[in-house]
Design brief:
The chain is of the alpha+beta class and 387 residues long. The chain contains nine helices and 19 strands. The chain has a five-stranded mixed sheet. A five-stranded mixed sheet has the order 12-13-17-18-19.
Amino acid sequence: MKSVVIILSWVSLIIPAYAQKADPERMERDIEVAENVLQTLIKQQFQSQRTFFPLDIEGSYQEGFGITFRFPANYTTPITIALGDNQIILDGNAVGGQWNIIERDIEDRVRIEIDDEIRLKERRKPARVRMDLDSLQKVYNEKVVEAARTFLLDYHDLLSQLPANERILITNRGEQPRMWINRYMSSPRRTLIEVEAVKGDLNQYRNGKLSREQMLSRIRILNTETAEAAEPDLELLSSILSRLYRSDLSKTYFSDNNVNYERLKNFGVVYYLRMYSSNQRGDRFDMPTVKMENVDQATRDKKVKELYPQFEKELKENIIEYGRTVKSLGDDEQLVINVRMTKCEGCGIPSTVEFSVKGSVLKDYSSGKITKETALSKVMVKKGSLQ
């Protein structure tokens, strides 16, 4: 009997330790350290070109999915300035809706400022601006992918709290598309980068159970660019979503802006929604979708929190019902709805949420091959950090 007691006591000690969940504070600290490491690895890819650019990377954890490291939506691409036989790459970052390009020490010094127009100032002779932004974007993307792979292979141990069945995703997908055009040059086609690996695979690589080549084959890499051809069905769904989420029709949150979208080659289409819950007047709020007027902050926040489950459920249903109108998607391509949520500090709702479904699911539901419940179960939901 004594031996049984000892064995049971040992088991009772082991089980709680094994079942222990990730430490939220340690997870947050690990992510912040990893953000800095990933940022440094990317910058090191450009050292040979003596470039410098601001680079903000934001990591967030979603239980059941993993950690996503995201570049901001308005991240810029390099710009080439050619002065006779001299060439240099300058990098900028969007700040407050304006573009500032960093000055470089070269034989003919030039500073470029981009607001509503480009102004060139030079010391000796005129500068000819030659900008092959698409090719520069390609080179830049390749370097980012290489840095992301290095991070996954060599620094994944920094994320000590991440469960083995969850993943690490590094992506440049932001909350809305970055678009800028002026009279002298235009934006290159926007590209989508995703580099992803499962933590369990990375653990096997660390323990010598997978070779470097085997691990590289398990890293999922997506590097695609926007398609230029206009597709009427995509515009139609944009119009439908814009109407569904006007304040007079929506029963949860609303959007006052048109719904922008991007068609990405060999990937699918991404729609961007910015949701609101109220109109603020001083310290009081009106919530038009639920017919509440002149309420205080606490009442408003409580209602915002209550509405979230209904919003998520209805948007999934709208994706299935109205996503069927998008006929140009391939079976393996995706319809993605990227949502930036209404602000509500301390409410516990996500700051962003992304819904995705394959074209084959929409086609099967439209043709009656699967039920609505089955189609809804195939809609994937990724939530950003909680507010």
